[in-house]
Amino acid sequence: MRILVVEDDSEAAMHVSKGLREAGHVVDHALDGEVGLNMAGAGDYDAYVIDRMLPKLDGVSLLTRRRSGGDETPALFLSALGEVDDRVIGFKAGGDDYLVKPYAFPELLARVEALGRRRTQAPSLTTRYAVGGLEIDVITRTVRRDGRKIDLQPREFRLLEYLMRHAGQVVTRTMLLENVWEYHFDPQTNVIDVHISRLRSKIDKDFDKALLKTIRGSGYTISDQD
Amino acid sequence: MFRILRTTTFSFTIIYVFVFAIAVGLLALLFYQNTFGVMSKQTDDIVDQEIAVLSEVFSTEGAGFLRRVVNERAAWRDDGLYLLIAEPAGAVLSGNLTALPPQAVNAGEGFIDFSFERPLLDAAGREIGVETRKARGKIRRFKPAPDADQSFLVFVARDISTREDLRRRTQSNMARIGLATIALGIVVGLVFSQALLRRVDSVNRTAKLIRDGDLSKRIALTGAGDELESLAINLNAMLDQIERLMEGMKEVSDNIAHDLRSPLSRIRGRLTEALKGDAEDKEAALRATLNDAENMIVTFNALLSIARIESGEGAGAMEAVDLKPIAEEMVELYEPAAQEAGFELQLKAAPAPPVRASRELIGQALANLLDNSLKYAMGGTTIRIDIRTGSNGRVLLSVLDDGPGVPAEERGSVVNRFVRLEQSRTTPGSGLGLSLVSAIARAHRGALTLGDSFSSAAERRGLKVTLALPAFGRA
User: What pLDDT digit, counting tens, does each position of A43-99 carry?
Assistant: First the structure.
């Protein structure tokens, strides 16, 4: 993915850029809002990572201008302001995701990669997902693996659906709590992990190959790659 | 003293007194006109009627009969009617007046007001002095025959002393009442203004003391229960909130210093050591540092959340919220983790009205309480969320466990930031869980209380944490 990072803290920006490059992405970096706006206009990016508070032109205005110009590149806001109202402002400006500082880099990476995927497929049109021998149908809410039907609780189904939508990408615990349970706080204990292990026992236990994998220090992914 | 003249109350009072005085004046004028105007007209009518009767007598019966009638009428001294027949030059021929009033001679046939003196008689008819009477009357000239050169005049007047006396007294009374009204108004205005000024001054004095740095000062309440009182109560509540926020800010900075300084110095020490060591030492130091940094982020996030919740940020998102679905979601979220930790998670929800709340914050509070129970209710088997209606239109949201509980004397302090009970020092956590819940309770204008799950003096009392939240519309 080609990613534009607009962040005025040069050390943080370097850290983010380096991490994203190590994950195999191409990263450009702007230190203020105006430069960021120009670079966004000049380059063809797959995702923007924009700090909300920037010199010269703040992040929300930057994205509002890009959106009014017809630019639909997915964008993630970084912000020290994390209240519900702030998130709403971010989403109204056309942001696709919101991450509150301080954050752990794997969280950022997982979210940026999830954004890039959003662009390549129209998620609302896809109703069936398949990874390895595991298939889910969002309309009939059925799950099969190697043709065998698997019964899931409604919440387990939503959890699996979210993982399947982001197959091959790392999904963090916070992303799961936000998207499956719709709460925006950091899960303190292992609540999400236990849900995952329950799900795993249903979809992976009786099969040779484990599809739902734990990525240490980051989160989870569903994938048939090793 | 002159300041009082510039107060709003005084200005209002003066305006009020002015308007009131005008209204009273108009009323008095109306009354005056209606009484004395009518009375004057009656006097004139009586005089005119008398003259008409006398003219009639003269034209039908002649001068001699007229004179007799006049003399008879004049003999009734007490009906307040004066009659007099005189020569054209004014010499009195007969009647009950001793002289024609001097101005009557030249007055033509219009009304004149005049006064004269007459002896004052006592009940027995003896003369005891002189009294001045006022009267009003008019002249009519008669000629005995069309060709007669000797004419005479009749003067008819009515006594108006009593009426004039009444008029004078009424006028002076009205003037006195008017002056008294205005004076009373001004005095009352001054008293009101003084009272108000004193109370406003007390607010100003308090404000000045606070501005000078003593944030603990509050406006003294008078107990009057009026609008100034409620203003003072509101201002005091505002000051409480400001003081709490200031304290919160101070606490946050103190706590950040406290909780982040130690890991920072630990990191510095470790890195200094690692620089001298070999590759393996360096890697170990880096891993430990990463771990520290992650814990610091957790602490920092928790501190920021508390500060934000306490500052009332996001309170705009408060709406009517049913607690039961949130509790159900949290039970659903925590059920697997609870089972793994050996607890049964229950929900007991009695019907309760919606509360004014943020779903996000209530969810977070419940998650924190469930986290706490999972961590600290060692040896317990059941965690229960309880929803019921309390007194004062509050809805009580409790999390109960059957763990060791918290000794009564330590309950106050566990809510404070960073306080963790001695036996829990070894478990991970920022020590901010309950502070966050407490901040959430305050943000909802609710209260957080800690108690026992079981009332009996059992060995394991369990912990019951209750959030009392105002029902929607009652906050």
Answer: 788 889 998 888 888 888 888 888 888 888 889 988 876 666 677 788 888 888 888
Neighbour tally for B16: CB within 10 Å = 13
The tokens describing B15, both together, are 């305006």
* pLDDT tens, residue by residue, A14-23: 888 888 898 8
- Record: contact B336-A191, CB cut-off 8 A: yes
Query: Could you identify the residue written with the tokens 């965690």?
Result: B383
pTM above 0.95, yes or no: no
- Other Cβ atoms less than 10 A from the Cβ of B104: the count is 22
For each of the domains in chain A, give its residue range(s) and CATH number, in order of start: 2-120 (3.40.50.2300), 128-222 (1.10.10.10)
Residues A185, B371: C-beta atoms closer than 8 Å: no
Phi-psi region of A167 (alpha: psi -120 to 50; beta: other; left: phi over 0): beta
Nearest-by-CA chain B residue for A87: B314
Interface of B with A in 284-313 (CB under 8 A): 294, 297-298, 300-301, 304-305, 308, 313
Q: How far is CA B199 from the centre of its chain?
A: 13
B361 and B314 in contact (C-beta within 8 Å)? yes
Distances (CA, A) of B8 to A23, A154, B5, B198, B305: 72, 68, 9, 13, 46
Q: Which helix (H) or strand (E) is B362 found in, with range?
A: helix B359-376
Sheet of A2-6, strand order: A26-30, A2-6, A47-51, A75-79, A97-100
How far apart CA B72 and CA B95 sit, in angstroms, is 9
Q: Domains of chain B by range and CATH? A: 11-173 (3.30.450), 227-310 (1.10.287), 316-470 (3.30.565.10)
Our CA-based measurement puts residue B245 at a distance from the nearest CA of chain A, in whole angstroms, of 18
